[in-house]
Structure formats: structure tokens, C-alpha cells
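Render alcohol dehydrogenase (NADP(+)) in 3D.
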Amino acid sequence: MSSNTELQWKGYAVHDTKLWDQFKVTDFKPKGIEDKDIDIKIHTITGGWGEVRLPLISGHEITGHVVRVGPKVTEFKVGDRVGVGAQAGSCYDCQRCKNGAENYCHKVIHTYNSIYPDGTVSQGGYATAIRANELFVFRIPDALPLEQAAPMLCAGITTYSPLRTNGAGPGKSVGVIGIGGLGHYALQFAKAMKSDKVVAFSHSENKKADALALGATDFVNTGAKNWVEEWTDTLDIILCTVDVSQHIPLSDIFATLKVHGRCVMLALPDDALPPIHPFSLMASGVLLGGSHIGSKAEIVEMLDLAAKEGVKSYIEMLPMKEVGKAVQGMKAGKVRYRYVLKVDI
């Protein structure tokens, strides 16, 4: 256990939702310290979303070093390289929490913009430090630089978990729709898990070279004619990382699946999914599902696999003071494929 008197609690916060790309350095109070909590001095972070409780410090893919551990912490010591993803707490007592599915706890506490039991609003990683229960802190393998690991703690696990859950690996064919912040991980992890075929789907040829470099065995331009007919009944699993209301009809996606194939929606569109005709599901008995980040066990497994198989984050580094530029670039789709911000306060 170490004193945290030297630790500052400051961050870049939004103060007005109409000025969503303007951030001001703000002091904040962390949640009350508990026995299994860890204080982390932040080095790099990425990410931001959601309705806000102002002023709010966002950011939910965080890496840094442990500077303080509570008396009942068993996994970490001061100086360890660690990370925190999109979840910072749960109830710890429900069936889901006790069975390794804490990421589906009904009382989930998100890394920012949630309310802790003591009434504190959780503040994210655009800051100097973060406090979290050790269940939601992850050791970063030595082979992974902190800036490479940070985006994996949400975007990476969002793709790894459904691949693992739905059986990606030898003997399976995996499709990935969209090559961006999520898709570039999905392709790499599907390959790292030794899937027989990894098929990238994109609406133009612009990202074909990237897709093949990331591990795709095949590339499908969904803007071309007859692509559905050519890929009917070929895939076991599809991860969809794009807003299907603006891209590919769901019936076309389902047509590429084998009998009892699975389509997992990972994109979070502002509106509902487009209408689905029951026959498009019944024709091959396909299953449509979702996924929410991942459990601690899955995240640890993912980081180890990334280190072993050389999975890379395609990132652009910026100083944290340029967070406004980063969120503008994300909104405009200019980043390739994740921004990572380095602490400068």
C-alpha cells in the first residue's frame, strides 16, 4: 500500500453538451477508497461516448501504472503496468458477477458517467488518474506498449469476446463487416484464433489493402453487383461493426451465413435496427445477437493472445490537450483507426 498524496485528480472535462468538442482542465473528486481499489496514474487513453452528467471527464480505454493498492488487493502491486476498460464496477454479488459475467451485471458502473453507491459520478481517462476495483484492472503484458494496449481494452475486447463465445477458430469461417476501430481488431483476432477463413466486407475498395494486411483471406466489396450470390452460405460467424441502417440490408448479411450461422451486432447506431422479416432468419435458422465488452478472464486472455500473435492497434498519437481535435476526427471518420491521447497535465 502506498500513499497517494502525490497523485493529482485533474482531467479534461466537457462542461456544455452543445460544446461537445471543447474541454477544460477540471479538478475532480474520485469515489471513496475501498479495500480492493487500485489508484492508477494514467499514461494513455482513448474513447468517449454517451449522454453526460456535467461536467464530465470521458475516456474509457486507459493504461498507466499502479501508484496505490488497497489492503485487500491481491493481484497487483505498486509499479505494475495496468489498464482499465469501459467498466469500473458492478454489484459483485449477483449470479452474473459470481460466474465470470460481470460485464453483464445489471448494476454495471461504466468507467465514466455512472453513479457509484457513494453518489460519486464516475470520471474517465482524460485525466491524471483513475481509481477502480481490482476486478476491472488488467495487467498489461510486457510485450505490449501501453499505447498499443489501451484501445484493446474496449474496442479490442468488443470483438474478441464474441469471436470466442461463438466458436471462432479452426474449422470456422468468419466475416467482418466494416474495417475501422472495431473491424481492424476483429480481422486480427479471427486470424490469431486460427480461423480457416477471415472475410472482410467493405462498401468500397479503399480499405482492401489494409484488410488483407490485417489478416483477411478474402475481401468483399459490398458496393459491387452479385456479391451476395457469390458469398451465400459460406460463413459460420459474422461480426457487424457498422450501422446497418446506412449500409447493408440485414437480409443480405443473413444470406451469407451457413445453417445456424451467427450474426453479432457490435455497432451502436443512434436509431433502432431496420425491420427484419422473420423469413430472413428462418431460411437458414440463423441467429442474431449482441455482445457487451468482455469479462476479466476474456480481457486477460485477449491481451496475452495479442502479445503472442502480434496483434497491433492502428493508432494516431496526440497530446491530451488536443482531445477536441480527436473527438472531431472520430465523428468525421478521419482516424485510422483509433486516437490515443498521452497525458500532458
